[in-house]
Amino acid sequence: MYRKANFWLIVLAVLFLATLYFHLRFADSRGVHFLFFAVESALVATLADWYAVSALFTRPLGIKWHTDLLGRNRANLTKGIVGMVESELLPKATLLSHVRDIHFVNIGMEWLESHLAANKTTVGEKVWVALRQLLLSLNIDKSSAFIEQKLKEALKSANVSSLAGEAIRWSTREGHLDRLLDHLVGFARERLHGTHTRSAIRDLLESERRKYVNKGNFFKRQAKKFMESMAEKTGVLDLDDAADALYREIVELVKSLEDRNHDLRLLVKDALERIGDDLQSGMTLSTGEINPIRRAVDEWKNDAIHRVSFQPVISQLLNAFIAYMNRDEPIKYWDRELRTSDIKAWTIDFVNRYWDRFRQDEMKKDALNQYARQLIVHVVEKEYHRIGQIVHKTLESFTDERLKQLVKDKVGEDLQAIRLNGAVVGAIIGCVLFLVLHFVYDPILQLLGNG
Fold it and tell me: How many CB atoms lie within 10 A of CB 328?
């Protein structure tokens, strides 16, 4: 368009010279005069429009007065654009009203489902891929430090005593404590088989005998040795028989403890339940004082948080888990095996089932949308001024030439069209003026002169 406007300017200049020649050659020809008048008016209008349009970007003919308007008024232009964006294009009230009318969750779900359909995949598979990529891109040192920090913060605020008390009560209520005691009794019964236990009892009795005999002053020790010798000779003291008797008593006790209603087992369960109640309440229920066990647990917790570093363990766990996720080797636990493919299948199935339930739950979608809307409204309310700052910063980053080129790219064709329209309008006005002067004004003057 710019070349077209300049082309017609040159054409008009040539036509002006041609009509000027004919106007001088045929001065009495009204037709030539009419054509000269029209071309002259069109050329003047075109030159005026060229100057006006050029004055926006440059200094035409070297004139500095009211030219290069974009360069000279850049600050005002930037301020005006920022004000226009904030007050007319994106006013806060209009932006907030549109935000409140949008259902962000439905829009997001529609986009996600169309994306999934196009790629022939599921939400679960996408989540699995994202989780694997996240794991593989983890910085182990930073991640383990972050997890340790959050873990210690959670432990500091956690009521470990209350949780321990609830765990004890739950294990008692659900029968886990009985199973633990059964396991301990079974372990003790296995350890009692063989001669090593009886030998250990015999050694323990011998050790206690020596301690007793060698305790006291010289006369007491001699008296004890004499009494011991007499007891052994008379058969009153026989450590082998004592060890056998004690061993049989222990075997009988362990066997009787297999009964879940044994008095000792019931006593242990009752004591643990009381400890659980005291830990959960924070007070010793029988005395109403602060529970010393709870105090000890809290002190142990705080000391452990202060002294123990969990980061090496967390790092090892993360490295082991990432290495495991990169291969499909089984991990055996109890009587089962776990593979990466099993975790993948479970994760995909879990996410897909949850996604299906979420799609059908309008209350959850509305609740999530309300939360998203409140979040966006809060961001708009708090950060709205940044829109103007961004526009201002963007415009300030432009050089004068880039800013002028931006305006030319957006409205350059319209500005050049103004030049062409100016030529047409100028020619029409020239024709009208010629007709008025020769067919209205001149006859009136002749009438007035004759009068």
Answer: 12
